[in-house]
Amino acid sequence: MPGGCGSRDPRRVLQPNARAPPCALILADHGCIRMKRPDAMLDPTLIRNQLDAVRTGLATRGDGFGGDLDRLVALDAERRAILPALETARHARKDVGERIARARRSGEAVDELVKAGQAHAAAIKEQETKLEAVEAERGSWALKLPNLPHTSVPVGRSDKDNVEVRRHGAPTGFEFEPRPHWEIGPALGILDFERAARLAGARFAVLTGAGARLARALINFMLDLHTGEHGYTEVEPPFLASSDALTGTGNLPKFEDDLFKIAGHWDLYLIPTAEVPLCNLHRGEILDERALPAKYVAYTPCFRSEAGSYGKDVRGLIRQHQFDKVELVAYATPDTSWDVHEALTRHAEEVLKRLGLPYRTMLLCTGDMGFAASKTYDLEVWLPSYETFREISSCSNTEAFQARRAGIRFRHDGRGKPEHVHTLNGSGVAVGRALVAILENYQQRDGTVIIPEVLRPYMQGLEVIEPGGK
RNA sequence: GGAGGGAUGGCCGAGCGGUCGAAGGCGGCGGUCUUGAAAACCGUUAGCGGGGAAACUCGCUCCUGGGUUCGAAUCCCAGUCCCUCCGCCA
Q1: Could you tell me the pLDDT band of residue A129, with boundaries at 50, 70 and 90?
Q2: What is the DSSP string of A201-268?
Q3: Catalytic residues of A
Q4: Which of A196, A305, A309, A402 lies at a CB distance of 3.0 to 4.6 Å from A204, suitable for a disulfide?
């Protein structure tokens, strides 16, 4: 459920009378958050008026809607049929109520009027019951519809149909046989899978000494870059989120199996990415257009059950139940969001450039995109042990998909009806995989690992990680 | 975990079950006065959804969800959040 509206709500206390919003947090132009349950993920008008386009668009997706769109349309029509009847009945009841009040005052009899009122009340109840059933079914269909791919997205079935749009650096060459990170790390004494397994099971890792410090250096380097040079506001959010928040981003109701749920009576999950708290930061708000685009960056741990990925990437740090990530999220107006998407992708790329890691930028095809995305670029970093590029960042524009589910809007020119904002997200970048890429790409014949120059200030000047490295 | 107190429009703050979508104040906007400004005075000022070219009109909205009633901001139940105190605690 939405947050409360206590008069001590900090948003109200901070509410400025002046027009200019503060730079850090955008303030809603109303202090109180009211939210009904999410309406639909796709624009209902679009489904109503351009059914065929929606149908063909969704069909190109890998996770395409398996259900019956016709049923959804029928439910929508039913709803729109009930509404006028309900409103007429309510109007009649209100009218009778006023006449009773007047009659009472002048001492006239009200028995007949009360009887009429009772009839209206019964009619209202009947319509409401019908409406409730229709909306419940419609809602459960609607929330499972994935986003429509943007027209610039290539149609394809799998990652094989993704398109490389640019490349930076050449795959690292070695004059010796490079080793995988799951050998390099333990040999240096900075990475330990055995002890992690003993304390938490498979798919966990312990970083120690220079390994832990390297992770922290990466986090700080990325945060400093995005806040200092790319204009993002740093956020430290909760690492748990409610089912409403996860529904807003599209993780629920379809992908509950991918999440870790808190035991007990709590309606809480461990966040699978900081995209969840950052996209829900302005849940239920109407934003000031002048504060857009609003850009946030957060470091958080991320938790994923990795259900259904048994046997995949079982070795090393590539696929863990817990990993660190620095996440970028932007809120933009519809006419700027595509520019923001390109910029955000470049911001993520800049991290890899400065770390001196070879990578390529892939435009995902329709079949390989995530549920909420309208268009996605993946950044793939070169990993010598795999002799291939592996995903290290994913940058998506969800257009109004998440905003509609989470009720995030803005008012054009400060007037008129509020419109949904566009939300964008991208890893900037995954810390664990960046650490893997450094260990593997910067390894030397003697097993030591050179620290990229940009990280050295964050490592007390350390240039090389040697065995037993502190 | 225990005990209390709260939640009303952009903000503060009233509100006997019956023209209450809500007094009053502040703020905002428009005007009078003024060389200009301030002050003073007058007027105006909620959101959301639907219909209409428009004036306009219908419905919903006083934390949320149920209930009582012809009729609920107001009464009842459940929940959420905030505040104060005690306990515990990084």
Answers
A1: confident
A2: -TT--EE-THHHHHHHHHHHHHHHHHHHTS-PEE----SEEEHHHHHHHT-TTTTGGGSPBPSSS--E
A3: 304, 319, 391, 394, 433
A4: A196
